[in-house]
Amino acid sequence: MDLTQPRFELGSEFDRQLSERGSVGTSAQCLSLFTSCLVMLAVLGENTESPQSTLQQVSVVFRHGDRNILSVYPFDPYHDNMTIWPEGIGQLTNITRAPPASVEWLVNAPVVLSSTAEDEEIEVRISRGKLQMWELGRYLRQRYGSLVPDLYSPEDTFMTSSDVDRCLMSAQLVLAGLYPARGTQVWNPSLDWQPIPVHSTNPGQDNLIRMDAPCPAYSKEYELAINSSVIQNFTQEHADVFRILNEQGWPATRIDQIHGVYDSFKIEESRGLVLPDWATSIYPDKLRGVLETYEAMRVHTPLMKKLISGQY
To answer: Which InterPro entries match (predicted)?
Structure first.
């Protein structure tokens, strides 16, 4: 999402309100990383490409691959259709199927694996999340081949991930692309893969990667921001969005309560699925405007940026 030009800019009035309430300049009490579902890879090695190079370590931070919807909005016609979400809700995608009406979507889609035509119906299988992550591992091998050893060693490589299925799977797939079984590490001649550990921390104890780890200092700043008159006025100006959502059974009275439904709309649209009429009356433009303002608000002050960005 492009937040460089948000539809609603939080300006000097917002800063003044927070300053008057004593929030700006508060000392940080705890830190959390920006994203709640993240994978980190660190590789140590000796650069063999250039003797003059001082590069000794590469740290890679990446998100998971394409996934299915995380939440189901009321009266969602596709929520229990396992032909659309065969991997499960919130899971890393394997393939997706596009209906025949999605011509524009098909033109802009990723790799087409196969297609058939029967009775004027077209089924197209599109490679998605899993292949994305495997290709990322292959890219890292190509990009840092002079540093990354050919064979995996726990002395060289360390992978850590959020304790979430799609993140753990993404980490495994990146490692599969980065370290295919070679030489003495081949244990099954018919399988170009080897097990490599992925480390994770219980969500309740993860203050490195988990975005919503408890942080009293950030929570204080957040509540000051979302209850400011600027945000309250913005919410009133977009009352029609909240009214429509509530009429359709999605309870929302604050700008931080619409991300789930926007996310579901966006993913379903990307699959070529037809959204309900009531959804198209607010999606994408109106919902995006609210979401962009929310994203800008949550990192608006220097202290909020510091607290939410974490240890790295």
So the answer is: His_Pase_clade-2 (IPR000560), His_PPase_superfam (IPR029033), Histidine_acid_phosphatase (IPR050645)
Could you tell me where the DSSP H helices lie in 238-276? Answer: 239-247, 259-270
CA distance 80 to 60: 36
Neighbours of 273 (CB within 10 A): 19
Torsion angle, CA of 118/122/123/129, rounded to 10 degrees?
A: 170
CATH at 77: 3.40.50.1240
Cα–chain center distance at 64: 6
Range of the domain at 305: 216-309
* Triad 89, 92, 98: Cα angle to 5°: 80
pLDDT tens digit sequence for 101-124? 443 433 344 433 333 444 334 444
Residues 277 and 253 in one domain: yes
User: For the sheet containing 112-118, what is the strand order?
Assistant: 95-98, 121-127, 112-118
Residue 39 falls inside a structural domain: no
* Count of structural domains within the chain: 2
Residue 288 is assigned to a structural domain of this protein: yes
What does residue 40 show for φ and ψ, rounded to 5 degrees? Answer: -125, 135
Residue 69: inside a domain: yes
pLDDT tens column, 124-136: 445 479 999 999 9
Residue 211 resides in a domain? no
Give dist(CA 67, CA 77) in Å, integer. Answer: 19
